[in-house]
């Protein structure tokens, strides 16, 4: 057999699996997004209605825009906070940093936890009666005792963001420690001798060389933030009201709970668009040459 | 005004001693060369002066200020790193300009000064490139330009010419020599290369295992080595070291040959040092002693004769027109003005 034929034959199983589990559902979802698509109405999965699901989302459905807003704010906050905190921690933990120790290994712990588990544990910690935070804040600042964190829209949002940041910091810190370790030490030392202050060394020498890794971190985290579901599901289930309803949760709600499969498929496809851009950018940075 | 004073400077990593309790005064405007074999602590000494390595003990003074607790940026030194330390994301121009930029030099003056520094290291055509697009020798010259673009209190240069080809190295050496006389800035210069050390230095410090073995002018070091290490390290080919003893005012080799008169009290063991240049080569029977040629080398500017001398081999330098062959017998005589006697125990020089 020719090498050429063989090589295609060998990747064929992988291609089939990817097609069956990723490409086909995407195509099927695209098709469904143009149908009435109600689980409780037989035949509606083949009943085409053009762009109506999309126009419905855009023009008739404030809840959709609410989810867009929640997701955007959530993504902005979690990406920003996680990246900044992880970068700070990485600077402290990197070789030559001030805090290098076994702590670095322990750090991975939150990342080893499943997001759903993080959601549940944060829900308990913020329980207004027996939660850890209630006890803690209540002791430090009595007016904060008995605050129902998860019942207040803004506080609930903050808690969801916090849980996510907490869960993601370790992994991104490790990635950034790796990035920092690859910044040649002489360049930093040369800048110090050249007369740069700590901040300028960081800005002029460390950060530009860390750029590609940082970009990967930001893009990767954006992708994960955009599609956050499990944590929200376990922690607040989108509430109170729709205060923490991310797009994924909104899709789940409409599709699984209300049986509006066609409509949720169209929203899901709307989410694919930013994902494509991010994935493209990610691939560009990760597979970039030289 | 910037003399450098090192007082009992020590650097240890665990049990390993990198620099061992060294004191050294470098005068203002002096060009001091640190010379020594690989791993003897030259870079470590230099990094401590720059503030990149914290001394385990001792004091560092630059001018009339103790700088132990000063950050590198506050010590006002410029350094050429052994492995360059160029900023890979900046162009060559930006690399050279960086010390000027961070020290707040007037923006309008920067291009001119960068241009001048680049000219001094013959790099002007590369200013728009990134370091990655340069050869090792070119990168090294960028590192050099980045140091000389500014007038600091002190220059620290860690083997700044090590990666240049032989011809460029000679040019750059002359350029550095000229520059140092012109700028009159205190300089500490590290090298492996003896010629660089001899030609550039006001004084040379020879190091071994973190200890300065001898500090002196190039003349002193070459003509008055303090111990066996310095004697063997300086000079090419290395000084011949012959084992023997002193009897009745004569140096006698272990093989029993009464070689040459020395003004030293008799002693049971001594090592005689003699440079290849301080031996004359004659026809057979006309020197102090006849020896057989083990190898004959013609270097162009002179000839080198490795001769079998009892059990030892010794290298003598002959005239460049001399033609001999392996196995020939020649006469050798020693110039008694340039003989060195060492104590094999302490390895120190015995006063002659
Ligand atoms: N961070 C460190 N930890 C432990 N040992 C070190 C460290 N840095 C240097 N050393 C050791 O200190 C000794 C002196 O090193 P240094 O770099 O000063 O040598 P050098 O004289 O500059 O050698 P070369 O001519 O090869 O550049 C070496 O044996 C080296 O292994
Ligand atoms: Mg070195």
Q: How is this structure best described in words?
A:
- The complex is a heterodimer of chains A (290) and B (352).
- Chain A is mostly helical and 290 residues long.
- Chain A has a domain at 62-259: MetI-like (MetI-like fold), CATH 1.10.3720.
- Chain A is 72% helix and 0% strand.
- Chain A is built from 13 helices and no strands.
- Chain A has helices spanning 3-32, 52-60, 62-93, 103-106, 109-112, 115-125, 132-140, 153-181, 185-194, 198-226, 230-235, 247-257, 261-286.
- In chain A, helix 3 packs parallel to helix 8 (153-181).
- The longest helix of chain A is centred in the N-terminal third of the chain and has 32 residues, at 62-93.
- The two termini of chain A are 36 Å apart.
- Chain B has 352 residues and is an alpha+beta fold.
- Chain B has two domains: 4-233, P-loop containing nucleotide triphosphate hydrolases (Rossmann fold, 3-Layer(aba) Sandwich); 240-342, Nucleic acid-binding proteins (OB fold (Dihydrolipoamide Acetyltransferase, E2P), Beta Barrel), CATH 2.40.50.140.
- Helices cover 23% and strands 35% of the residues of chain B.
- Chain B is built from eight helices and 21 strands.
- In chain B, the strands form four sheets. In chain B, strands 6-7-8-3-9-10 form a six-stranded mixed beta sheet, with helices on both faces. Chain B has a six-stranded antiparallel beta sheet with strand order 13-12-11-14-20-21.
- In chain B, helix 5 links the parallel strand 7 and strand 8.
- In chain B, helix 2 packs across helix 3 and helix 2 runs parallel beside helix 4.
- Chain B is elongated, with a radius of gyration of 24 Å.
- Chain B starts with a strand and ends with a strand.
- The model of chain B has no long low-confidence stretch (mean pLDDT 89).
- Chain A binds chain B through residues 184, 186-187, 189-197, 200, 204-205, 208-209, 211, and chain B through 50-52, 71-73, 75-79, 81, 83-89, 98-99, 102-103, 146.
- Bound molecules: adenosine-5'-triphosphate and magnesium ion.
- Magnesium ion is lined by residues 42-43, 82, 158 of chain B.
């Amino acid at each position: 057999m020719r090498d050429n034929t063989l090589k295609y034959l060998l990747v064929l199983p992988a291609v089939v699996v990817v097609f069956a589990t990723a490409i086909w559902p995407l195509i099927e979802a695209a098709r469904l997004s143009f149908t009435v698509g109600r689980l409780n109405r037989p035949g509606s999965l083949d009943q085409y209605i053009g762009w109506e699901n999309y126009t419905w989302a855009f023009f008739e459905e404030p809840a959709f825009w609410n989810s867009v807003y929640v997701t955007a704010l959530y993504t902005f906050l979690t990406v920003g906070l996680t990246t900044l905190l992880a970068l700070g921690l990485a600077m402290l933990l990197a070789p030559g940093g001030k805090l290098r120790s076994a702590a670095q290994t322990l750090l991975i712990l939150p990342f080893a936890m499943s997001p759903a588990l993080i959601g549940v544990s944060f829900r308990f910690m913020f329980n207004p009666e027996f939660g850890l935070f209630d006890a803690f804040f209540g002791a430090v600042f009595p007016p904060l005792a008995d605050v129902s964190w998860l019942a207040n829209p803004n506080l609930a949002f903050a808690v969801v963001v916090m849980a996510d940041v907490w869960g993601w910091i370790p992994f991104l810190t490790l990635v950034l420690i790796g990035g920092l370790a690859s910044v040649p030490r002489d360049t930093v030392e040369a800048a110090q001798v050249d007369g740069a202050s700590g901040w300028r060394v960081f800005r002029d020498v460390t950060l530009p060389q860390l750029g590609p890794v940082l970009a990967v971190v930001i893009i990767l985290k954006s992708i994960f933030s955009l599609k956050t579901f499990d944590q929200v599901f376990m922690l607040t289930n989108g509430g109170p009201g729709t205060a923490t309803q991310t797009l994924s949760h909104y899709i789940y709600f409409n599709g699984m709970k209300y049986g509006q499969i066609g409509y949720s498929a169209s929203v899901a496809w709307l989410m694919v668009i930013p994902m494509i851009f991010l994935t493209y950018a990610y691939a560009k940075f990760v597979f970039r040459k030289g | 005004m910037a003399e450098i004073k090192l007082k009992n400077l020590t650097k240890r990593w665990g049990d390993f001693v990198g620099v061992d309790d060294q004191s050294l005064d470098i005068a203002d405007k002096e060009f001091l060369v640190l010379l020594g074999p690989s791993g003897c602590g030259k870079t470590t000494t230099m990094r401590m002066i720059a503030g990149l390595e914290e001394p385990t003990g001792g004091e560092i003074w630059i001018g009339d200020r103790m700088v132990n607790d000063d950050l590198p940026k506050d010590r006002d030194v410029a350094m050429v790193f052994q492995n360059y330390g160029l900023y890979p994301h900046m162009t060559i121009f930006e690399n050279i300009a960086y010390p000027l930029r961070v020290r707040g030099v007037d923006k309008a003056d920067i291009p001119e000064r960068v241009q001048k520094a680049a000219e001094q290291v013959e790099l002007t055509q590369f200013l728009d490139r990134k370091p990655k697009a340069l050869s090792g020798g070119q990168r090294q010259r960028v590192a050099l330009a980045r140091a000389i673009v500014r007038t600091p209190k002190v220059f620290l240069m860690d083997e700044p010419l090590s990666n240049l080809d032989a011809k460029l190295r000679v040019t750059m050496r002359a350029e550095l020599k000229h520059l140092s006389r012109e700028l009159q800035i205190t300089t500490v210069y590290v090298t492996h290369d003896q010629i660089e050390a001899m030609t550039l230095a006001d004084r040379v410090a020879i190091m071994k295992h973190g200890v300065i073995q001898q500090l002196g002018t190039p003349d002193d070091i070459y003509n008055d080595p303090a111990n066996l290490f310095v004697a063997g390290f300086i000079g090419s080919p290395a000084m011949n070291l012959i084992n023997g003893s002193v009897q009745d005012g004569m140096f006698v080799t272990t093989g029993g040959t009464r070689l040459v008169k020395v003004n030293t009290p008799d002693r049971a063991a001594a090592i005689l040092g003699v440079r290849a240049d301080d031996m004359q080569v004659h026809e057979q029977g006309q020197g102090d002693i006849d020896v057989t040629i083990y190898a004959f080398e013609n270097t162009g500017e002179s000839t080198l004769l490795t001769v079998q001398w009892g059990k030892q081999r010794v290298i003598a330098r002959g005239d460049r027109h001399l033609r001999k062959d392996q196995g020939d017998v020649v006469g050798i005589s020693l110039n008694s003005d340039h003989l060195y006697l060492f104590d094999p125990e302490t390895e120190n020089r015995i006063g002659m």
